[in-house]
Amino acid sequence: MNWKSGIVMEEFLWISSLMAVSLVCWWTDSSRLDLVRNISEIEGGDYGRPGLSHVTVASSLRDGFDEVEVWLQTFGPGTRTPIHRHACEEVFVVLKGGGTLYLAAASSSDDRPGTPVGFPIGSNTTFRIPVNDVHQVWNTDEEQDLQFVVVISRPPVKVYTYQDWNTKHAEAKLMFPYHWDRNFFTP
Amino acid sequence: MNWKSGIVMEEFLWISSLMAVSLVCWWTDSSRLDLVRNISEIEGGDYGRPGLSHVTVASSLRDGFDEVEVWLQTFGPGTRTPIHRHACEEVFVVLKGGGTLYLAAASSSDDRPGTPVGFPIGSNTTFRIPVNDVHQVWNTDEEQDLQFVVVISRPPVKVYTYQDWNTKHAEAKLMFPYHWDRNFFTP
Lengths: 187, 187
Fold this sequence. Notes:
homodimer; Auxin-binding protein 1 (chains A, B); signal (chains A, B)
């Protein structure tokens, strides 16, 4: 090896080291950056439900959460969830607006939900859905948006939907992966 | 039994039935009522940390949640958490204000957290704390309150606090039950 190729080799090693260090820094930064996210920059949508704005703030399938998932949802006037149930804990924190929670308590002797009870919900209230109780959240206000943070356990959510309150539990339809999980689901 | 005592007995049975029905309705209502709660009416406090307003919105020990717990916290300017870690998933949704998340990634080769990295947090951001990473949340803004919804898994929380970033992991102090859980804890 002459002195010229020696210098070339030295430069090559130096540049390689620099690239390796940059790569480590980049990796470190990018793995850190997703710790803090701007919610406005997280992709969301209406997922086929007119009047809905859903953002999965913390996702099981996308972000690797094993135990909790957090959603930010806004319902325009008249917008409602399907009648549904899921075998997880669920907590809502209402940030603005108002509406109605319809809930039919689960009973092992009934083969269908039956007529639900309506509970008014509003800004600065919190409500919870008992595991497997059939429920529906509805923005019954005619003007204001209804917005809440939703927390669920046991993600990703497995939703059983009911055509109406007289649909038999056995005939509820499993939706899995749920609409907003589909892009991140690998069978 | 003469006709008078027959009427008295009939009235007694009728009134008893009415009372029983009322009792069932009352029980049903009161067990339903706690599904929806006004957050302003849930007892909270500063729990010995000046500048803190903490409300346990959904509680493991108080409400019987097994898998998630939800807090609403407001930090006045300068208010901060202790330097701490916990073996659960944790997600923050920032509602208003700004501040800094300090975080030292867990590494099995280190016996202490060491110098943390600071991440700016602000309104409409979300951030997560990796399980067991040592961290501190600080309202570094000099004027505004910092408010967020906090979600944890595996409640009730078991917090290990550090005197400073050079405290050894082995010397971190277990706080259990944590301040806001003490009133609801039965050994």
